[in-house]
């Protein structure tokens, strides 16, 4: 969508320059260039990532006795040399998220076990 907007803005600037409206054409082309830099170099992308950070960092803290982490497969690729199926580029984000969830679960279980062992030791003492 943003690429289409940039393209249309650039076409409008070129049209204005062709009609010899130099001030307007220069302004529109400059705006298209600045918008391209803002989108391509990061400030807009950084802002969009910050908006998604709240959603992506939500890791459940209340784990049950039995939990299941399901990684849905997508973009599996067949490696011709070995004949094996490996995850493609688009699957890595899901694999990393599953590893983060597993690590959070593992840390929660280890903390709970250390608390229960400490409680049992304090009761015995």
Helix content: 55-70%
Q: What is the number of E strands? A: 2
Give the terminus-to-terminus CA distance.
Answer: 68 Å
Kindly estimate the percentage of residues that lie in beta strands according to DSSP.
Answer: under 5%
Low-pLDDT regions: 116-120
Q: Give average pLDDT, whole number.
A: 76
Strand arrangement across the biggest beta sheet? 1-2
SS field, number of helical segments: 4
Order of helices and strands: HHHEEH
State the secondary-structure class.
Answer: mainly alpha
Based on CA inertia axes, which overall geometry fits?
elongated
The value of Rg in angstroms is 27 Å
Largest beta-sheet characterization:
2 strands, antiparallel
